[in-house]
Design a protein that fits this description.
The protein is α/β, with parallel strands linked by helices. The protein is built from 12 helices and 11 strands. The chain has helices at 52-62, 79-88, 98-106, 149-162, 179-184, 197-203, 228-232, 234-253, 259-266, 270-278, 285-292, 298-312, and strands at residues 44-48, 71-75, 93-97, 111-120, 124-128, 142-145, 170-173, 190-194, 207-211, 220-226, 280-281. The relative contact order is 0.20. Keywords: Signal.
């Protein structure tokens, strides 16, 4: 569902990282196989933006789980920048949603998913003012939405549930960085957004009308790499996956240890951080193997269903090839 561009406020931004200056790593995580005659791998640069599902990766960096001379996280203002950097070769890996990966593959960029961060189960939502009674009451309303695949996907699903067409609402295209200010200034009646912005807007009086729990399997966040990176950076990819799973285990077993750091990163209080993560399904190592390995990886099946939805909504120029979409390389022991 292409969105009107005449009301665009700025370049599209998907999950803009709100970074709070995590500081230099406090320690180093040793890389195996780097001693003796083994040649060190080149620096692995990983681009990401703002989304709680990526926050555990950034927490690992803040806690010194990465050797900064071997692996570096780079914050970018939009998913468009991440995809462009992957295409230009200025980064080797990028955090993207599955629909963004599919769109890149449809455009000829052979990206492979090597890690599933999360599946959104409420983290992406439509938040409206109290005067909007229900989904059907969105007719004629101003809906703030970013010009992105995810924004279009959530808006498409919302309108379908409401029985409305795109020409029956008034999309106002803006970056996610503008969502809270647009809400405060009364420029929109509803927002298609995601955490942590959803929690921030609800704290200002917004109410949740629709969310990704009604879109199972549609919004999956992955770590994507161009295919040659699989051979060039196997140890680095395994290191970042291992660090993510370490932080995930810590979050599940003792969330209090990570709450202050995650709250600082996301600009949320402790309870809001918990609520943001409640909207995510976070697969562990074993479940990642189900998503990424086997004769028919779960990710490929999910992608096939998602391609159909995206084509109906005119979100793809052509259907992408799904062969070789997923790899379990990063899940192997280091």
């Amino acid at each position: 569902m292409p969105l009107p561009t005449s009301q665009a406020v700025d370049d599209p931004a998907r999950r803009h990282w709100l970074g709070r200056g995590l500081g230099a790593a406090a320690g180093l995580l040793a890389l195996p196989g780097l001693s003796g005659c083994s040649r060190p791998e080149p620096l692995l640069r990983v681009a990401s933006n703002n989304w709680p599902g990526y926050a555990l990766m950034h927490a690992a960096q803040a806690l010194g789980r990465f050797d900064p001379t071997r692996l570096r996280l780079i914050e970018m203002p939009s998913s468009s920048d991440v995809v462009q950097s992957l295409a230009a070769g200025t980064v080797e890996a990028g955090a993207l949603t599955l629909d963004e990966l599919l769109a890149a593959r449809a455009d000829g960029l052979d990206l492979v998913a090597v890690l599933v961060f999360d599946e959104s189960r409420g983290g992406d939502a439509v938040v409206a003012r109290p005067m909007v009674r229900d989904l059907t009451d969105l007719a004629g309303r101003r809906i703030g939405v970013e010009q992105s695949a995810v924004g279009a996907l959530v808006l498409h699903a919302t309108l379908r549930s409401a029985g409305l067409r795109l020409d029956q609402v008034r999309p106002v295209v803006m970056t996610v960085a503008e969502h809270v200010q647009a809400w405060r200034e009364g420029l929109v009646d509803a927002l298609v957004s995601f955490e942590p912005v959803v929690s921030q807007v609800m704290a200002l009086g917004g109410k949740r009308l629709f969310d990704s729990r009604s879109m199972p399997g549609a919004i999956v966040d992955v770590l994507a790499v161009p295919r040659p990176v699989l051979a060039q950076h196997p140890r680095g990819l395994r290191q970042i996956a291992a660090a993510h799973f370490e932080m995930l285990a810590l979050w599940q077993q003792d969330p209090q240890r990570l709450l202050p750091l995650l709250g600082e990163q996301l600009g949320l209080g402790p309870e809001a951080v918990r609520q943001a993560f409640e909207g995510l399904y976070l697969p562990d190592l074993a479940l990642n193997r189900d998503w990424l390995t086997g004769e028919t990886p779960k990710l490929t099946a999910s992608a096939s269903a998602l391609v159909e939805v995206m084509q109906i909504g005119h979100m793809l120029p052509r259907p992408p090839a799904l062969a070789g979409l997923a790899s379990g390389l990063a899940l192997e022991p280091r």
